[in-house]
Amino acid sequence: MRYATCVKPISYLKANAAEVLAELAELREPLLITRHGEAKAVVQDITSYEQTQETLALLKTLALGQRDVESLHDDLVEHDSIAAARHRLDEIARVIETLALFPDRGAHPPELLALGIREFRQTGFKPYRVIYRVGSDQVVIHLIVDGRRDLPSLLGRRLLGV
To answer: Assign residue 54 a region: left if phi > 0, alpha if psi is -120 to 50, beta otherwise?
Structure first.
């Protein structure tokens, strides 16, 4: 991003709004708006904004998935052995790897189907469940969890924001 050309005072935005919008759509770079020489806002085209939001959501999902794996590992080590933990995590990894080849193979989680939600699928290695969503060109894993947990409330918090 070229900051020197992507910084404009608010007066420029007011006087040239239509031109600014056309330029944003064409260049796909954000515009920093200043007031009295200080940065006050960033303006960007809607496509770039939506891509940014999707990327942030994916990063959040990845962070949650990483925490799931760490939590699962810690729980397995605490209640079993390191070797058993590694074995189970390897099995879960194999299940996840097959999603690249057969993303639609998983059933819809019954807890979500009961709410009329069909956008998520699940697969797993008993008793562990992998809850995921199939996108146009990717599979996003939202949850890796021991299926013996209180899933309705966990699914509500994690997937539905309830």
So the answer is: alpha
